[in-house]
Amino acid sequence: MTDKLVFIADQNDAFCKVVTGWLEEVGLQTKIFKDTELCLNLIDQNPSAICMEMNTEGSVGLSGLKFLKRLRLANRDIPILVVTENEELESAVEAMKLGAFDYIVKPLKKTRLIYSIQRAIEIHTMVNKIDRLQGEIQKTHVYKSIVGQSAVIQRVFTQIEEVAEININVLIAGESGTGKELVAKAIHYSSNYKNGPFIAINCGAIPDALQESEFFGHEKGSFTGADHSRVGKLEYANNGSLFLDEVGEMSQEMQVKLLRFLQDKTLERVGGNKKISVDLRIISATNRKLEQDVASGKFREDLYYRLVVYPIIMPRLRERKEDIPLLVNHFLKKYKNEMPKKITSVSSLGMEALMEYNWQGNVRQLENVIYRAMVASRTEAIEIDNLPIEVQKYSVHSYETQESRFNQPILSGSTAAFATESAQKAIKIVATIQEMEQHAFVEAFKIAGGNIEQVAKSLGISRATCYRKIKKYKIEK
Ligand SMILES: Nc1ncnc2c1ncn2[C@@H]1O[C@H](COP(=O)(O)OP(=O)(O)OP(=O)(O)O)[C@@H](O)[C@H]1O
Ligand SMILES: [Mg+2]
Hints:
Elements: E1 5-9, H1 13-25, E2 29-33, H2 36-41, E3 49-53, H3 64-74, E4 80-84, H4 89-97, E5 102-105, H5 110-145, H6 151-164, E6 170-173, H7 180-189, E7 198-202, H8 208-216, E8 217-218, E9 230-231, H9 233-236, E10 241-245, H10 252-264, E11 266-267, E12 276-277, E13 281-286, H11 290-295, H12 301-307, E14 310-313, H13 324-335, E15 345-346, H14 348-356, H15 362-376, E16 381-382, H16 389-392, H17 401-407, H18 423-447, H19 452-459, H20 463-472
Parallel strand pairs: 1-2, 1-3, 3-4, 4-5, 6-13, 6-14, 7-10, 10-13, 15-16
Antiparallel strand pairs: 8-9, 11-12
Helix pairs in contact: 5-7, 6-7, 13-15, 18-19, 19-20
Bound molecules: adenosine-5'-triphosphate and magnesium ion (MG).
């Protein structure tokens, strides 16, 4: 006897008896339903196949095609075999259109019925297996791309697992480049929404006036310039996850609207009057201290508490330096096919500097440094002089080390090194950092002709950070 179970749905005793006998002869278990509603209610027992009579006249519950439609809605995967009378061929065609696996015309033949059911079960088992494997591949793929063995990053892995299968709102907080988006994707691909889309929306990159339409979509003609109707990101994310990146940058007006949406997950397109319900998972990220924005009134407290049901704090790279060699290795492998030459390692001097450096830009900055060093390297190993000057200075063997650590420009070093200086000097330095940063941005902007992608690349920062700085320094796009 196998554990394969087949549901048989028909009110006709003789039919059920014959079919049951044949199927049990080949080792299948059967369950008979005279009431089709009951059959639907027990669909969670996940039978390997269902054999139903098309002509359910006189049976209890739903009849024929209606029953088939409901079965399909309740479970898309279970193969359904339909048995029809000769004169019902039209409804057999209809049944196939609705997704029945096969149909058999009466009078029933034992071999034909058994063959069809066994084939259905085989395919069903195979599809289940493929689904499971695909899920596992997806999961390991995203997990694998988050590199780290330190206790602090392991804690993040545990949190991802804890939260993945429950639909509660997660807020991922951390400095730029710490891997917030990577974690958001890992949650999505380990969740029940993994087969739906992962839609990211950068709240800092959309002008305030366009935020509503970006989130909710709009109907044609709803405002000047709305030539077509447009589906918003909330609708796109239906059955999947919506990633609200830089959520702290959302306009006050949009905060109210999002809060309203979160209360019942229904929306109306701008200029529309139809209520649309969506089922999605919300994951937000911020590199601002949102609690401070709440305290200062910039971010709504009620929205904050809705989004932060489960907080995840991303560790800074400088708090998990033991992961640097692993990350370096990961990036060497990631980019090896893009390089014309084979580069497999970093010299010990180089690694020493990488371990000592302060990584204000976290993993993204490390990734960029490794990529550029691979481009510059002439040998199989990345040497210390392939690294940027500010990193080189962090090698304990560097001639300049001790001196330069305290004299180098603040942009690339640790501000903590200045902690012992007088308060006045500190204020002056902070002003200088901002001036230098602003200058760097304005120049990079000019060179790139306003192309954000290029500015971000040339400064080794994310596009999101780029948008923030544009706002901060009021740079004209
Ligand atoms: N633990 C990690 N393992 C491997 N790669 C990582 C890790 N963390 C981050 N990265 C890589 O660093 C880059 C930045 O990561 P991500 O975009 O997720 O950061 P972020 O926190 O969202 O940054 P930002 O706030 O600037 O948007 C990506 O290329 C990502 O693949
Ligand atoms: Mg990001």
